[in-house]
């Protein structure tokens, strides 16, 4: 029975160490969860910003296309007027 007290002391130390490690692990998991939430929010903001920019660029492309179509129509109309003027 001479070994019993040192073993009990060692067991108590190991249990305390285990409890500290479990608490540390829980804290790290919580911190990691918060970091992930922050990154997800950041990514969502980037996604919204990029979608707005994409929509804006799409509208600009449509506007340029319409301008070119109008210019072609005006040019064609002017050509036809000029041609008809010389024919008659």
What does this structure look like?
- The protein is built from one helix and no strands.
- It is mostly helical.
- The protein is rod-shaped and about 125 Å long.
- The protein starts with a helix and ends with a helix.
- The model has no long low-confidence stretch (mean pLDDT 90).
What is the CA-based Rg, rounded? 38 Å
Query: How many helices does DSSP assign?
Result: 1
- Provide mean pLDDT, rounded: 90
- Low-confidence spans: none
| Percent strand | under 5%
Rounded to the nearest angstrom, the distance between the terminal CA atoms is 129 Å
Structural class of the secondary structure composition? mainly alpha
**How many distinct beta strands?**
0
Listing every helix as H and every strand as E from the N terminus to the C terminus, the arrangement reads H
Overall geometry: rod-shaped
Summarize the SSE layout with pairings.
Layout: H1 4-87
What are the salient characteristics of this protein?
1 helix; 88 residues; mainly alpha; 95% helix
Briefly, what is this?
The chain has 88 residues and is mainly α. Helix content is 95%, strand content 0%.
């Amino acid at each position: 029975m001479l070994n019993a007290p040192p073993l009990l002391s060692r067991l108590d130390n190991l249990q305390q160490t285990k409890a500290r490690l479990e608490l540390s692990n829980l804290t790290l998991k919580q911190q990691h969860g918060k970091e992930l939430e922050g990154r997800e929010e950041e990514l969502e903001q980037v996604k919204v910003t990029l979608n707005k920019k994409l929509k804006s660029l799409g509208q600009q492309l449509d506007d340029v296309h319409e301008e070119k179509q109008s210019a072609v129509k005006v040019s064609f109309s002017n050509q036809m007027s000029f041609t008809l003027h010389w024919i008659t």
